[in-house]
Design brief:
By secondary structure, the protein is α/β, with parallel strands linked by helices. It contains 15 helices and 13 strands. The longest helix is centred in the C-terminal third of the chain and has 22 residues, at 368-389.
C-alpha cells in the first residue's frame, strides 16, 4: 500500500481484512515522520503511539469495528494531549505536559484513532505562514522554499507529505482552509460551536474552532463525524444532534445554486489563482450546479474587524501566562512586577506581543466604544451579508488566498501584508459559518491552489457532498509532492 496516497477507506479495508495491523501502520508513519525534513511535528513519542496502536489491535481482535479504529491521526499542538507536550508553538509552554486530554483528543481516542504526535503551528495559532513557531517554520512539501500556510501548517504539510493520513487543525481566521490550500489537501472548518473547544489552547474564543484535514472530502467527513458533538464542558458548544457527515457524499449536484461573490474575484487576486478557481467553477458547472454572481459588500471590512476582535480576545486569554501558575518563568528578576515583565518578554514571540498590545489598546478605557464595539457591529453586518446571499444560493465559492504560498521569510517584516492574505477566509470566520478548502490545481512554481466553499450555518454535509463530487471528477487531491 502506498501510504502517501492511501485513503481512509483503503486503510480501513486493510485493517479489517487482517492485511496489516494498527501497530504496523503506526510504525510505517513514524518512520516517515523520522525521515522528514519539513519540521511538521513538535512532539513525537513512538512508545505512546505504539501503545495506542497495540490497544487498537486488541480491540480489532475482539471483533470491534469502527471507521477510525486503528487509524493514525496527528493532532495540532493547540489541543492539549495527556502524555505529549502541549506547547501551542510557544516558548511559554515549551515543556508543558497536560494532565488531561482536549475533548477532540478524547473523542478520537474513544473511536480508536492512534495519535502520531503533535503538529507544528504558529505560536498560539497567530499567523498565516507557520513562521511564528518557537520550534521553527514548517516547510511546504511541494517546495521547501515556500511557507506551508498558517497556523495549521504542520498538519497540512503532514497530510500532503504522507506523514499522517488524517490531522486535526483549528481555524480562527482561516487557519485550516489557508494551509490546506497551500499544501494541496482538503480541510474543513465547521460551524462555530460544532466542535468542542474544551482543552483547545485559546487564541480568540469567539472565533476559534476545531477542524479536520485529510487528502479528500470523504476522509474529512469521517474525521469530522468523530470530532463533532455537544460538550457540556464548553459553554459555546451547540446542542445539535450528532450527524454522520458522510451521509450525502454521493448526492448529485443537479440544481444546486453556487454563488461567487464579485468581491472575491476582483483586484488583488493573482492571475494563476484566478485561473485555477475559474477552472474549478467550470467543473462544478459541468456537474450540474448553476454558478451565479452574488455580492458580499462588507468583505473589505472583514480584515479591520477581525484584527480588532481577535487581538482583543487574545490579550485577555493570554493574560494567564504570567509565570505564576504554569509555563515559562524568567530565571532572573528583581520583584513581582519585574518577574511578570521578563517572563512575558521571554516567553512570547514578536507576533503574539504585537497582537496582545493591539488588543490591550482597543479594550482600554476610552477606546472600547471606538474600536471593539464598532468591530462587533461590523461583524453582525458581515453575517447579514451572508444571510442575504443564502436567500438566493445554496452555498458560496471562491478563492482561499489571493496568492499561492509565498517564500519563507518573504513577508516576515511586513505583518500587514500577511494579514491581507486572509481577506477571503475572514468573512466566514466572523460569521461563524462552515468553510472548506479543496485542491483545485497549481499556480506559479507548481504551488497548489485551493477552491473555497462556504455554507450556511450547520450545512457541513452539503459542503462535503460538493467537494466529494468535485473530487470524483478531478484528481487534484491525489497529486503528491516529489
Amino acid at each position: 500500500m502506498n501510504l502517501e496516497t492511501a485513503s481512509l477507506r483503503q486503510l480501513r479495508a486493510a485493517l479489517d481484512a487482517g492485511e496489516t495491523t494498527a501497530e504496523a501502520l503506526a510504525r510505517a508513519f513514524l518512520d516517515r515522520i523520522a525521515a522528514s525534513d519539513l519540521n511538521a511535528f513538535i512532539d513525537v513519542r513512538p512508545e505512546l503511539t505504539l501503545a495506542q496502536a497495540r490497544e487498537a489491535d486488541a480491540r480489532l481482535a475482539r471483533g470491534e469495528r469502527g471507521p477510525l479504529l486503528g487509524i493514525p491521526v496527528a493532532h495540532k499542538d493547540i489541543f492539549v494531549t495527556r502524555g505529549w507536550r502541549s506547547t501551542a508553538g510557544s516558548r511559554m509552554l515549551a515543556d508543558y505536559v497536560s494532565p488531561f486530554d482536549a475533548a477532540v483528543v478524547e473523542r478520537l481516542a474513544a473511536a480508536g484513532a492512534v495519535c502520531l504526535g503533535k503538529t507544528n503551528c504558529d505560536e498560539f495559532a497567530m499567523g498565516g505562514a507557520n513562521e511564528n513557531s518557537w520550534f521553527g517554520p514548517v516547510r511546504n512539501p511541494w517546495d521547501r522554499n515556500a511557507i506551508a500556510g498558517g497556523s495549521s501548517g504542520g498538519a497540512a504539510a503532514a497530510v500532503a507529505a504522507g506523514l499522517a493520513p488524517l490531522a486535526t487543525g483549528t481555524d480562527t481566521g482561516g487557519s485550516v482552509r489557508q494551509p490546506a490550500a497551500m499544501c494541496g489537501v482538503t480541510g474543513i472548518k465547521p460551524t462555530y460551536g460544532r466542535v468542542s473547544r474544551y482543552g483547545m489552547i485559546a487564541f480568540a474564543s469567539s472565533l476559534d474552532q476545531g477542524g479536520a484535514m485529510a487528502r479528500s472530502a470523504e476522509d474529512c467527513a469521517a474525521l469530522l463525524t468523530a470530532m463533532a458533538g455537544f460538550d457540556p464542558r464548553d459553554s459555546t458548544s451547540v446542542e445539535e444532534a450528532a450527524e454522520d457527515f458522510s451521509r450525502n457524499l454521493d448526492r448529485p449536484l443537479d440544481g444546486l445554486r453556487i454563488g461567487v461573490p464579485r468581491e472575491f474575484m476582483g483586484e488583488g487576486l493573482a492571475d494563476d489563482v484566478r485561473a485555477a478557481v475559474e477552472r474549478g467553477l467550470d467543473t462544478l458547472r459541468g456537474l450540474g450546479a448553476a454558478i451565479v454572481e452574488v455580492s458580499l459588500p462588507k468583505t473589505e471590512l472583514a480584515i479591520p474587524a477581525y484584527y480588532v476582535i481577535a487581538p482583543a480576545e487574545a490579550s485577555s486569554n493570554l493574560s494567564r501566562f504570567d509565570g505564576v501558575r504554569y509555563g515559562h518563568r524568567a530565571a532572573q528578576y528583581a520583584d513581582l512586577n519585574d518577574m511578570y515583565r521578563r517572563t512575558r518578554a521571554e516567553g512570547f514571540g514578536a507576533e503574539v506581543k504585537r497582537r496582545v498590545l493591539i488588543g490591550t489598546y482597543v479594550l482600554s478605557h476610552g477606546y472600547y466604544d471606538a474600536y471593539y464595539l464598532q468591530a462587533q457591529k461590523l461583524r453582525r453586518l458581515i453575517a447579514d451579508d451572508f444571510r442575504a446571499a443564502f436567500g438566493s444560493v445554496d452555498l458560496i465559492a471562491g478563492p482561499v488566498s489571493p496568492t499561492v504560498a509565498w517564500n519563507l521569510g518573504e513577508r516576515t517584516d511586513d505583518p500587514v501584508r500577511n494579514y491581507l492574505a486572509d481577506v477571503y477566509t475572514l468573512p466566514a470566520s466572523l460569521a461563524g459559518l462552515p468553510g472548506l478548502s479543496m485542491p483545485a490545481g497549481f499556480g506559479e512554481q507548481g504551488r497548489p491552489v485551493g477552491l473555497q466553499l462556504v455554507g450556511s450555518w450547520f450545512d457541513e454535509a452539503r459542503l462535503l457532498n460538493v467537494a466529494h463530487r468535485f473530487q470524483q471528477a478531478t484528481d487534484w487531491h491525489l497529486k503528491v509532492p516529489a
